[in-house]
Design brief:
Elements lengths: L5 E2 L8 H9 L10 E2 L3 H32 L6 H10 L4 H9 L1 H18 L5 E4 L2 E5 L4 H17 L2
Antiparallel strand pairs: 1-2, 3-4
Amino acid sequence: MPLEGVPKPPGSRVSDHLKQAGQSVGIDFTGLCDRYPNTLQSHALIDYTFHAHGEVKQNEVVEALFKAYFTDGVYLDTANLIKIAEQCGLPTQDVLEYINCPSNIGRQQSRAYDFSIEANGSVPFFIMNYKGTFSGAQDVDAFVHMFDTIASTSNANL
């Protein structure tokens, strides 16, 4: 994917199924953004936020990114990533340096490649605690079981 992303084809950008699924949990998938973004800088921002500010702030940033792109139609280029980071209270210069650092972008490329190999082409593919857990559509019980397993394993290691 080029850094500037790629244009979306004309026509409906959100399937009826996705629209309904989103509405059932309070998410309005609008399809307003006319480009598929290159997400390396977005993932670098998420990575920076976790390491510099913790998982609570990371969740805030992820929610803001998703809302901006999927609901508000904001294209996630560098300028908009900085705006989102600022709205979440992150230091502008630190974020700018981190998301433009070649080694940080390279790390995101490497992680994306590793995940794609592990996923073996399956969509969706779920990764929890940096490990592949399952692929394809899953019912709620599968998620609950996996969350319980992770929680019991994590607690045992404390």
